[in-house]
Amino acid sequence: MATITVDGLPVENGAMVRTREKVVLVRAEAEGYQPFEEQFVNKAFGKNQYVITLHKKTFSVHIETVVGSSAVYEQNRLLGQTPCDVVLEYGMHVLTLSRTDYADETCRIDVRENGSYTFQHHKEGTPFQAMGIFSCGVQPKQVIFSPDDDYILIPLLGERGFDVFSLSKLRMIKRIEPPDPSKQTGYPEGLFLKERNVFWVSQMTTSSIYEYSWPALEYKRTIPTGGVWSKYITWHSEKKIAAISNWLSNTVSIINPESGDIIKKLPTAAVPRGLAFTKDGKYLVVTAFEGGRISLFDTDTWKEIKYIQKAGSNMRHAVLSPNDRFLYVSDMGNNMVYEIAMDTFTITEWYEVDHNPNTIDISPDGKLLIVSCRGPNNPVSYLIRSPRSGYIVVIDVEQKRVVAMFSGGNQPTGLDISNNGKYLCFSNFLDNTIELFYLGDYNANYSK
Question: Residues 26, 100: one domain?
Fold first, then answer.
């Protein structure tokens, strides 16, 4: 909507203005358009009508692909061959990357200033619109959308602290370094406690949680976890309890978020990792990486009441469906994701995915489960680059089938779907990048 003034006084579009002035100064402005200013000479004793046309701003945009070269089209117009520099109008543009023997890649860019965009042209094709690949700190272990979906916070295993990425600016805007006097690295996970307006980030090397205010991101306090190599955090707002898994002490610490006190330490199977509270707060799910176990704890007694044991498994991450009917767990040992019916606590579906499935997330409507798979490890260490890229696996849990697999970077690890269900972000652990996608209507675009 344009803002219009006549001789400095605001005027609505199409409104009649009465003036005795022979010459009037008309100004008009609108976001994304060149400002308009012109003097008009009025004819006496009559109605003067003026039509103002605003012209969109244009910007220089650099487009490149990480490997190889692709033709860039907007609708049917060829813009160039990557890497290329093009001039685009302000606003949203949907582009297509085209390359021989590759599926076309749909990209979405919101042009608001001069900028540069890097894309991976996925040979397999994706059901989503790519928004770009962005550099971050060393070894991004997780990605977390802020409650308003305006930012993505990225805990770093290989650096001190976490990065903050702006979704509107599509760039990293700051690095936050918690006040660890030992200046160690090792930040694996984070969590927004939305109802408390705070963000928690864990540091496994000091077994600490650092609390920051949100959205100011001002440091508030350090909470000792009482465990060793603390990693994943979850919480239940109504019961006012939080839980964090302690990788090397084989415990889960139950914490009072108000005081920071440890209420209870639960002994678990070897190397606990994933956690999830049920919506009613009656149960806590714990997955054990080396213990090969998925446990269900009663939060009144803190006793394990049910469990699933699977030989050769490495249970990592757990998420519940929005209605709590199903639990989904990634198993790095067997390259599987399991669907577990919560009423019987038994496995009802098995989804075979790529090597080393890490983080999983389910869309807010409960229809889509997305899995980051690191791919095969380097024979020496997973901290050395893998022999090939890992894959992102898209599962339609209503149809109970894998509907898409597309390559990420080297070791896709962290993954999150935005709270509004519009965006997907995942981290490439050994590329030191994140990739961002617009999900759109995936049913219309991809399900068959």
Answer: no
